[in-house]
Design a protein that fits this description.
The complex is a heterodimer of chains A (313) and B (106). Chain A is of the alpha+beta class and 313 residues long. Chain A folds into three domains: 106 residues, Orthogonal Bundle (Helix Hairpins); 85 residues, HSP40/DNAj peptide-binding domain (Sandwich); 71 residues, HSP40/DNAj peptide-binding domain, CATH 2.60.260. Helices cover 24% and strands 24% of the residues of chain A. In chain A, the strands form four sheets. Chain A has a four-stranded mixed beta sheet with strand order 6-7-11-10. In chain A, a hairpin with a 6-residue loop joins strand 8 and strand 9. Chain A is flat, with a radius of gyration of 28 Å. Chain A starts with 5 loop residues before the first helix and ends in an 11-residue tail after the last helix. Chain B is mainly alpha-helical and 106 residues long. Chain B has a single domain, classed as Multidrug-efflux Transporter Regulator, Chain: A, Domain 2 (Orthogonal Bundle), CATH 1.10.1660.10. Classes of the chains: A alpha+beta (313), B mainly alpha (106). Strand 3 of chain A pairs parallel with strand 1 of chain B, so a sheet runs across the interface.
Amino acid sequence: MEYKDYYEVLGVDRKVTQDEIKKSYRKLARKYHPDVSKAADAESRFKELGEAYEVLKDPEKRAAYDQLGANWQGGQDFRPPPDWDGGFEYSGRGFGQNQETAFSDFFESLFGQRGAADFRSSPSRGQGEDHHARVFIDLEDAYQGAERTLTLSAPEQDSEGHVRMKERTLKVRIPKGVKKGQHIRLAGQGNPGMGGGPAGDLYLQIEFNPHSIYRVEERDVYLELPVTPWEAALGAAVKAPTPEGPVDLKIPVDSSQGRKLRLKGKGIPGKKPGNLYVVLRIELPPVSSKRDKEIYQKMAKEMAFNPRINLGV
Amino acid sequence: MIRKERLPVLEGLVLEEDYSLTLNQICRICTVHTEHVLELVEEGILEPTGTTVEHYRFRVDSLRRVQISCRLQHDLGINLAGVALAFDLLEEIEQLRNKLGFEEGD
């Protein structure tokens, strides 16, 4: 397994005080909190921070970790020393109340498995808790529907009454027409009930993976389409991509930069389907030959066009 | 691999925008206490319709807001006024990002 440099994760020196560790953790936690940050790796960074802080905030655990010595490098192959005593009792949780957060093998080899001791109080009747998870889909999946295989972990009681985390795999149909932030309820797929009680429900929250060419707002989809100055000026029929495949698009005569063309109902499908908006971006051809230059010179001479007329100059 | 192939495909119920939730449902789904949800209402983080607590109906995006506020409170140690401020600022950033549109880099 890989050695984790917890000091490096928190961006502090090995000699800093507990106060400085807390300060640095708080600062980085705000920066990488998955509900706040848009960084693609926010969730994993935040988990890493949580794990590092879990160890370094506790002087006992920090001392134990320091015992390993300062010569290790993050990512280096690591095995705990033979006389290591991993007898730590602790409970903690990572990102929110989601119980799927697990610490690294490195952490577990040193401090044992994270306990399942901090679950929020279950409602009576022994009914299992509702479970929440986020599912990332592509925009195209919202048009066509998709299947996703999820791995969730939930607490389970063994015959001796110990609560352990148990992984399970589910295959879920994402129906077409879902939008960002929407929830899908899967009845009875939450955490199992205790003492024969019914299982809770599973709530999946839909998130979209960022798309390279489309932007999504609710059910409306935006596409920026590059056009030539003459296509914009004279009008043209051009091919434009849509999440459902390419279409022929008519560029109206005398279109200006940023003109929005609406393809009604071509957004994300639904009871009230969204629209697809094609936003024109006029691309200026580069002057790469003598001929190009001549054409620009001709335009300069023959077209009376002053884009600064509104600036009074 | 083979085991995965055999998994049945589960179909869920999509909670549409017009789906509304009672106070009890919110508490049950998000595993939070009634008082906590009422505090969120008081702080303006949740805006249910209905004038009395028994008649409160919450929009379905309240689920997300309850969970985010629990996480922000727990993970970052901020109070509810701070959470409300964070929501306002996050919304404003989202709007600005949308305005920036395609200029928004990765």
